[in-house]
Amino acid sequence: MSLFTVDSNNVFSGGIAEAGKYNVQIVKTMNKVSGRNNQYVTIDYEVLDGKYKGSQIKFQNVTWDNDDVENSTKRFNTIAVAIGAKDGAVIESVAQFANAIKGKKLSVDIDWEKPNSKGKVYLGVKGYGPLDPDGSKPNGIKRPGENSTSQSTTPKVKTPKNDPFAKNGEQITIDDDSLPF
């Protein structure tokens, strides 16, 4: 008996290199419990169309916070509505939810996360919606530190000559995390 048959249509893709909005299918779900005793679902998505078709967005966690049921309900409900669940559908548990969403299709908005403890930057899901009939839309913003096809979203501000905090009139970069809004 053979181990497998080579099939060029059954290979891993190169991965997603740009943030944006992608049509995806939920290909894997795992129900787990956190150290704080909150249940969560780890979701893996696969891109359905466009230049990143077949690429995966892995290990996205959606947590049910027992101390914040209102926001937890909104968080899980947003995904349920995006996959087409009808008003009035009752979800009995996080495990039921995890099983019910597997194989479903939706669109996700992804963007670059803050660096982790090892300085690595990964894409994270920031929003959910129904499938986009116009297809996936990468936005050109690549991993921070790599060349991008679009301009950086970090504004550059030229400082006046009399600014006591400026370094010889050099540009000061203000990243979004430094802004109060």
Description:
With 181 residues, this protein is mainly beta. Helices cover 12% and strands 34% of the residues. The protein contains two helices and eight strands; from the N terminus they run βββααβββββ. The protein has helices spanning 69-82, 94-101; strands at residues 18-33, 39-47, 56-64, 105-112, 123-129, 137-142, 156-158, 171-173. Strands 1, 2, 3, 4, 5 and 6 form a six-stranded antiparallel sheet that branches. Strands 7-8 form a two-stranded antiparallel sheet. It starts with 17 loop residues before the first strand and ends in an 8-residue tail after the last strand.
Mean pLDDT: 85
In which range does the helix fraction lie? 10-25%
Described by strand count, sense and barrel closure, the largest sheet is: 6 strands, antiparallel
Computed CA radius of gyration, to the nearest angstrom: 21 Å
Would you count the extended β strands for me?
8
- The assembly state of the depicted protein chains is single chain
What is the H/E string?
A: EEEHHEEEEE
Low-confidence stretches: 148-160
Strand fraction: 25-35%
Quick recap:
This protein is mainly beta. 12% of the residues lie in helices and 34% in strands. Mean pLDDT is 85; it is low at 148-160.
Keywords:
single chain, 181 residues, mainly beta, 6-stranded antiparallel β-sheet, two-stranded antiparallel ribbon, 2 helices, 8 strands, 34% strand
Question: How would the blueprint of this fold be written?
Answer:
Layout: E1 18-33, E2 39-47, E3 56-64, H1 69-82, H2 94-101, E4 105-112, E5 123-129, E6 137-142, E7 156-158, E8 171-173
Antiparallel strand pairs: 1-2, 1-4, 1-6, 2-3, 4-5, 7-8
